[in-house]
Amino acid sequence: TAQPFSHRVALVTGAAGNIGLACAERLAAMGADLALLDLNGEKLEQARASLSQHDVRITTHTCDVSDSEQVGSVVDGVAAEMGQIDFLFNNAGYQGAFAPVQDYPADDFARVMNINVCGMFNVLQHVSRHMIARRFGRIVNTASMAGVQGPPNMAAYGASKFAVIGLTQVAAKDLAPYNIRVNAISPAFMGPGMMWDRQVTLQAEAGSQYFSRDPKEVARQMIDSVPMRRYGSIEEIPGVVAFLLGDDSSYMTGVNLPISGG
Ligand code: NAD
């Protein structure tokens, strides 16, 4: 049965996480072979097991995206084993601490930038070299509305996601001559789950003029800031990623699509 992404190979980073796994599942359902990469090897194997009903090749790679050398050898290995890399969902990320900029822990700032910016760059760089050789590639970077609006108490995360959007625009230009498109998605409030609970709790604890000290009230404040008056579900992301990886977005590169309820 011909599926839209049969004979395509997709590399997904942060593949053991919520968004990475949901998108990997959609790509597999559309026929793509998968190379799944994550720092957490145990969760990665659970992710692979959860995808086993799909009749596609799946490889897993425990890898730290912030280590360029490690990324290079994993990516070269994937290209050799799978024959090609057509799609990159460059998605691994870390939210960091919540504190006003004057109190923000410097070591955590460096860690966030190292994972979210250097990590995304490392994967993009190594994968793009294989795509350039074949004159074909589609890349989606996971940014965030935090990289558009700069929420309070998120100095590192906000700065890192602004950088991801900048990297997307630069890479789109650098790689356009090689038939490689580079776009970004920017989810905002997604729930329910750990990420939602964590940001609600930590924004309350950060104690700023922007949010209540009561997490329940913070949740209401956040939802009230969304025109659609609800958080997004993880299942509202994979279709957007598939659109940006597929041919329906053939004249789009360097854009950042908000997934934010308005
Ligand atoms: P998640 O924590 O479920 O998944 C992130 C995954 O990245 C984890 O499996 C983690 O092990 C992996 N990872 C972290 N550091 C890594 C490293 N150094 N090398 C390799 N893998 C690493 O979170 P998620 O919600 O699925 O987040 C995915 C992406 O979406 C992130 O870039 C995040 O910033 C972004 N995002 C999430 C939300 C949200 O509300 N969930 C909103 C906007 C943007």
Task: Describe the overall structure.
This protein has 262 residues and is α/β, with parallel strands linked by helices. It has helices spanning 18-29, 41-50, 68-82, 106-134, 146-149, 155-175, 194-206, 215-224, 238-245; strands spanning 9-13, 33-38, 58-62, 87-90, 137-142, 180-187, 256-259. It is globular, with a radius of gyration of 18 Å. Nicotinamide-adenine-dinucleotide (NAD) binds next to helix 1 and helix 4.
Distance between the termini: 38 Å
Q: Fraction of residues in helices?
A: 40-55%
- What order do the strands of the largest sheet run in, or round the barrel if closed? 3-2-1-4-5-6-7
**Secondary-structure element order, as H and E?**
EHEHEHEHEHHEHHHE
Strand content: 5-15%
Notable traits:
single chain, 262 residues, alpha/beta, Rossmann fold, 2 domains, globular, binds nicotinamide-adenine-dinucleotide
Write the layout of secondary structure elements.
Blueprint: E1 9-13, H1 18-29, E2 33-38, H2 41-50, E3 58-62, H3 68-82, E4 87-90, H4 106-134, E5 137-142, H5 146-149, H6 155-175, E6 180-187, H7 194-206, H8 215-224, H9 238-245, E7 256-259
Parallel strand pairs: 1-2, 1-4, 2-3, 4-5, 5-6, 6-7
Helix pairs in contact: 1-9, 3-4, 4-6, 7-8
The protein binds nicotinamide-adenine-dinucleotide.
Would you kindly provide a brief summary of this structure?
This protein has 262 residues and is an alpha/beta fold. The chain is built from 9 helices and 7 strands; from the N terminus they run βαβαβαβαβααβαααβ.
